[in-house]
Every structure is written in C-alpha cells, then in structure tokens.
Amino acid sequence: MPTVRTLPFAALVIATTLHAMFNALQAAEPLPGTQPLTVEGDLASQMVDGIDRFLLRQIGESATHRPVHWNRDTSSPEKYSASVQPNREQLAKIIGAVDKRLPCDALEVITTTSQSALVAGSPKFEVLAVRWPMLPGVYGEGLLLYPTRDNPIADVIAIPDADQTPEMLAGLATGDTALPPEQQFARRLAESGCRVVVPMLIDRDSKYSIGAAGTRPTNQPHREFIYRQAYELGRHIIGYEVQKMLALVDFFTADAQRTKQDRPLGIMGYAEGGLIALDTAALDTRIDVACISGYFAPRNHVWEEPIYRNVFSLLREFGDAEIASLVAPRPLVIEVSRTPEISGPPKPVGGGAAPGKLTAIDPLAAIRETTRLHDMLGGMHQPLTFMGGPGADNVLPPVSESTLEAFLQYLVKDAELADLGPAPKVNRPADAEQLKRQFDQLVDFTQRLLADSEETRRQYWAKADRKSRSVEKWQESTASYRKYFYDQVIGHFVLPKEPANPRSRKIFDEPTFTGYEVMLDVFPDVFAYGILLVPKNLKPGERRPVVVCQHGLEGRPKLVADPTVNDHHYNQYAVQLVKRGYITYAPQNPYIFEDRFRTLQRKANPLGKTLFSIIVPQHEQTVDWLASLDFVDPARIAFYGLSYGGKTAMRVPSIVERYCLSICSADFNEWIWKNSSARSPYSYLHTGEYEMFEFDLGNTFNYSDMAGLIAPRPFMVERGHRDGVAPDEWVAYEYAKVRQLYADLNIPDRTTIEFFDGPHTIHGVGTFEFLDKQLHWSPIAE
After folding, report:
1. How many CB atoms lie within 10 A of CB 259?
2. Which residue of 163, 365, 381, 590 shows the fewest CB atoms closer than 10 Å?
C-alpha cells in the first residue's frame, strides 16, 4: 500500500484556506474586458445610500445655481418688477396657481333664516361670516372684521395657521381653542381701524380623507389628501389657497375702484398661513405690505416637511429669500416666532400618509436667509424689518405686538396699534360644516380636472403629426415632446457621466449559461448594478440580442435571474430567456427599502427631478456598456419589466432610444386615474405609495402618450385578468389608443397586448413570441 502522509494541522489549515481561496477566485472571475468586482455587502442598499448622498449634495449646491434663472434689473423699482415677472410666472406654475379666477367684486355674507349675518361684535368692530368666488364651484370662506369707524385705514388679509380657525384670530374662540388676546392679530388690526378678512385654510386633521368613494379611510392630513390628487394634475394645495387670497385681492381692488377709496392693502400670515402669505405677496404687486411669521427659513430640508409642502422644482429657482425678492421693493416684515411642531401625520386610521414633520425655526438660519435676500437685491432698497434674534430667548410669540406695530407702520404712516378692547360678543356659533365645504369643493374641482384631463392632453399633443401617417414625420414632430418629458416631467440631470469602469464577478456557472454580477459607475456616489446571463453556446464572432429584465417594487436582480430562485411573480423569466438563447441583463433599480427610497423621491422633487432622473442615466450607462460587448448586437437590446419594472418600461425607453423594444407587464394602465381618482378602489390616492405622483403628468403624458414616445419601436403590454393593479377595461381603454397610433403609422404589427387568465405575474408566452418576432430570433433548444 502506498504510504499516507499526514500534514501538520497548521499546514492543513493553510492548504484548505488556499484551496478555498482558489475556488472563490475561480468562481468570482470577471467577465472578459472588465475589472474584478470586489465590493461586498448589500449592493442594493449601497446604491440607495449613494443616491441619497448625491441628492443631498445637489440640494446643498442648489442655491449657487439659482442666479442663472434670474435677470434682476435693480436700476429702478419699475424695471425690477418687470425683470422678475418671468420668475413670478414660474412660481405660480410650480405651486399650481394657474387657473383663471372667477370675478370677485363683492364678498357674500353667509346667513340663513335662522342665523343673523352678524357673527360677533364689539365697540370697535363687527364680525360677519363671508365667502367669495375663486374657481368654478370653489369659494373662499372666512370672517370679515369691519371697524365701526367711518373709514377703515387699510385693508388686510390675515391668514391663520392651518390648524387655527378664523375665530381664533378674531378673538371669538373659547376654552382650549382660544388664543391669548395678544396673539389675536386679526382682532388687534380691526381694533386699530383696519378692515380685515380672515380666510379659512384646509387643516391637518384626517377626518374627511377617505378614498374610494368614501370606503377607504386614511390618516392623510386633509392637506395631503388634496395635494396628492392635485399634484398629478399640475395643481397644489398651496396654489389653491394662494388663489383664494388673490381672489380677495381682486375684491379689495374692485371695491376701491367702486368706492373711490384707495386704501393700502396688506397681507400677513402665521406658520402655514405665512407660507401662503409669502407666495401671494410674491405673485401680486397690488399687495402693498407683507408680514410673515413662523415660516421664513432656508428650504434645504423641505423634503423632511409634510409632503403637502413638496413643490416640484422649487429649489431649482427659489428659496424663501428668492420668493421674498419678488415682494421687493415693497415692505416686508419677517418674524421668527414659535411655530407649530408636528412629529408626523395623524395616528393611523387607515394608514397611507407620508412621513413629514414641522420643527422650530432656527433663528440663525432665518437671519442667514434674510442676508441672502439683502445680497440678491444689490443696491435696491427694500424696507425690511426682521423681528426676533439669534438666541432662543428672542423667539417671539406668533405675530407679537412689535411685529404688528411694524406692519401697521408700513401700511399707514403714523398709524398706532390700539390697546386691546373688550372681547367681542359672540352672536352665533362657528359654522361646523365650513371646513368640510372647503375640503369637498377642492376635491370636487380636482376631480373635474381629472375628468377633463384626457382632452387637455389631446390638445397638448396637437402638434404631433400622425395625420400624415409617416413614421419619419411622427419621429420629427415628437422629438420636442420627448425632450419635455425628460427635462420637465422626469427631470434631467445635465451632468457628465463618470467613465463606466465596469467591474464584474462570476456568480453562476450553469450547464447552459454563465452569470455575472456587474457594477458600473454613473455619477459620483451613483452606480448601476445588475446580473448578466450569457449563453454558453455563443459562436465566435456571433452577436445576439439582449433582453433587459426589470424587477418590480422591493425587488432584486436575483428574483429575476437566479436559477435557484423561483418567485411566482417573475417565474425566472431572465433564466427562461437565456435558455432560449438570449443574453439577459437584470438591473437593480433603486425602488427598494420602502421609505428609504421614497425619501429619495422627496429629495429629488424640489430639484425638479424624480427617482427616474437617476434610473434613466443608470440605464443609459448600462445600455452603452452592453452595446460595447463583442457578443451583443447593439441594435437589438430590448426592455421587459414587471410592475414597477413595467412603470420603468414606460418611462426609460421613452427617453433611452437605444432600447429597440419595450414590454410593459402588470403595470400598463389609465395612469392618471390610477393616481388621482378619489372614487376608484385602484387609486394610489389612499395608499402608502406617496412617491407615485408626478407633477402635471395628467396634462401631458398618460401611458398611451409614453408609448407614443416609444413608437415606432415595437411595444407590447402583458396583462393578467386577475391583476389587482387595475381593471381590465382601464388597461384595454388606454391600450386602444396605442393600437390606433401604430395603425395610423402603418406599423400595426409592431404592437400587441396579451390578456391571460392569471395574476400580477410574468406569463412569458405571448411576450416571448413577441420578442422572437421583433428581435428576429429563433429560440435555441437546450
């Protein structure tokens, strides 16, 4: 027998370790032409963290890029006002204050046969319940405080915080809801001789935030519930409420012309009312003086605030200082005061609300923002009073006496703030239905916009040439739509990409294919990552088609491309396709880890960007790299995505024209109704997916319109009858428009839809046939 040598234990350990390392190196060998991928850990988590750092850096740098959007002429007040008019128009657009208001030349007194018009009174002023028209079916409501003296010295719009009622500011509230008399600033101004209107704002409660025709309660604040549906349609709760204030300005202007009494007009607001007052004064030069309390501060953390303050592209052009510069050269009073501190939305009823908080304003930060305002005005003078100071002891109570005195002095020279008189005597109780009326009117108006949105989109697309039935003319006439879609809807980071620096490691060695993890650089801190599956029967010099197989929400590439994982949603479709002879690539998209990725959308939106502003360049880099591989046919790189991957299939190939084909599975929809309907149980309006809403999409691009950007490239929809994302009729209705377009362009064979009797899943029958046909591929048997 041969002698058996026994190695010493230490040598055995070393030999075993070396063998394991050799096997690991063999298993992790990179794809030829790439460097070894050595990064360990959860690459999806690292991707989300990197994007987060990138977006925070972009937010931090946003103020330095804003001057390119401004062309201030400070040589005279008149020239200055004209020079910033384009900025006023842009602010109105992004806050959704875009609808033509109804004429408002009088306030309507709200009374009934059982209730007097007089709500309350004191020796110095009377209080009336009033309303005024703003938009069709929408009224502002509030209280009119009318001084008993013969001629009021000024007109004032006094805006409470969202969780304050007009009665609180007028001194009519009792018990726990009463404000200290010195904070009842509408009452103080009325006692000093001003005619004051106190409008009601939509509050932060969630009592009426019920979706699906009243069957799906949520814990969304009323402001968020309106924000969600309005945002998709290019409107906003901020814009709606600014419009109510502008309607009051219309009234005061018309009343002055009628009575020939030219009184100064001021506006002041606290907390949420401060936001509305600032935007209103910025938009309308008929306002003579503005006062902002408990709001003015830097907005770099707006993504942490309640989502109803999320304004698309705000930070690209505006911080609070830039908005305040639109008030110049008119006087402005800024007060650092105690603000409402809100840790999040109301406690869950049905859930669904987005996280968001309000915290105390840092006085030093407010001072820095005011300094920015001063600097951007150059030598032009703006009467400016800053109330409060850098220390916590100098944070004032809301609309303090000194603030009121400064505001009143700007309004009427030598006017004096009157001493507090006796409390008003209440004649009738507060209207318990007022808030519900205001809420319902805005919901109903928004739902009418939704009903009209298809016609709005049809008019928007009128310049796209389908009448000539020419593919070439269609492509020429839709190029500007594609650019708008990327620049203004998706959001385009116009930045140079990093060199791709491809790194890879082998992770699968199957009988018929090899699998590699691949990482590509995109932007600083932003990378693309996925799994490439390559058939082993490639012939020398052969170039094959690629199918990019995109996972859905909370997904990972291995759910799609790992031969040991058979998730019932994906059915190993990347593996199935590689076994048919295709090359497949399964990218990691960053919609993973719930609020971690949804917060990325919150950070992107104020920059005029979305999550797809990152996903698109990731795919651009990926497709360019795939096309560079010597075994890939660069003219045959197709896209096929399920669910959120289907959402990607509508947006990314619309922009990335190197994708020669797109298949949308388990997502194609009447997308605008899906997002904005207050009546449908399929709507995102009452779910926790608060990142879904895309500003003004309803007036520009539904899914059939995105398919129009993909045309004339092949496009297919895969739809299971039992898929709960939408009813079949929504899908069929929207797809019929796609089929008509392809027929009009004389290419009906390039599009199809497959309905199958199944759930939210990859069916892989008609779609595989579509891929074979459109990519000119004959499946290779194993």
Report:
1. 10
2. 381
